[in-house]
Specification:
With about 400 residues, the protein is mainly α. The protein has 2 domains: about 1-190, Growth Hormone, Chain: A (Up-down Bundle); about 205-395, Up-down Bundle (Growth Hormone, Chain: A), CATH 1.20.1250.20. Helices cover about 80% and strands about 0% of the residues. The protein contains 15 helices and no strands. It has helices spanning about 5-20, 25-35, 45-75, 75-95, 100-130, 135-160, 165-185, 205-210, 215-245, 250-275, 275-295, 305-330, 335-345, 345-365, 370-395. Helix 2 (about 25-35) packs across helix 9 (about 215-245). The longest helix has about 30 residues, at about 215-245. One of its GO terms (cellular component) is plasma membrane. This is Putative MFS-type transporter YhjX. Keywords: Membrane, Transmembrane, Transmembrane helix, Transport. Its main location: membrane. It holds the Pfam family MFS_1.
Amino acid sequence: MKKTPNRWFILAAAILTNLSLGAGYAWSVFQKALLEANASQGWVQAQTSLAFSISFAMVPIGMIIFGPKVDSLGPKKFVFLGGILFGAGMFATGFATSLPVLYLTYGIVLGLGIGSAYGASTSVATKWFPDKKGLAGGLTAAGFGLGPLIIGPLAKTLIASMGVYSTFKVLGIALLVVICCSSLVMEKAPAATPASGSSAPTGKTHKEMLREGNFWLLWLIYILGATGGMMIIGSAASISDQYKLVGEATLFVMLVSIANTFGRIFWGAVSDKIGRYPTVIAMFGAVAGGLALTALFKGEGSILAILGVMLVALSFGGFLGSFPGITAENWGVANVGTNYGWMFTAYGVAAIAGPQLGARLAQANKGDYSMAFYIVIGMALLGIVLQLFYISKLKKA
């Protein structure tokens, strides 16, 4: 008789996998070094930030491609595949001395690796804990958010000692080994048996979901909510340097990572108290208020500006934590993995829009991000209006 795996061991492996994948969020540390290394080629932030945008735009595509196969073939194969793609993409970036190669390696290959491994590791963790889904989902999501907190300072140390390109190679090999080894313990969870008197999970397919206007309204709300966070995460080091918010840009990246991670837990608790949709409105309010603080009080060592940026990162974590539940609530749990993959394409759009918006407007305004901040404030206010409209639609239905 086959021994039942220890589910806590599987959860630990999933957290370790997602923590490794979270290295992708440390982009602003890598970007600063890449710009310095390629100054002679005239690289600018608007060009290099596109690699980060492509990478996280590929994450939902990877989830859509690989996600439906995880249940039939098991999570182990897709976490392993994700580790190979992620590590290979990171390693190959160590040879990316042209922008097209950077877009291919850090953008497409690494991003698809995150999509494959993150979707599978998060899915297997929650399925092994049907009695503690919130705990399992929260811990695995927190692992992803904490990645830059650990990888960022490590990357900075390696860059200082061996240069950015050798750092990509070392991290690529190390993270490939960590993720692939973690995958080896990720056994498929036993099929859930419906409790007495209950029926099997039901829900709409992604094709049915995509035909509904409510999907596209929530999809747009998700884009409006995630764009500011992606701009902050993709440009954290540059924003800190521009306004001299803290003495060390890596410390600022760590503060943003902490806020992003804590937001996934904090807004979940708020949601339990006041409901999902009022929470979304509160998060939009935090984004608008946070960026207003940063825009109005930016300057050397400004505590209010730092607090403002952290409010945006806090809310970004909340949007990522809220929309899986919103998707399940509207279209059922039977196909929630695939359905959320489609909803998550909104995150992909935000991954392109946020960093590009910040980088291009900063470049056009001599490094000043104020115009980008005000545009995102407008997006947050529009998000509040659309969420109120959605709530009114539900009341009339």
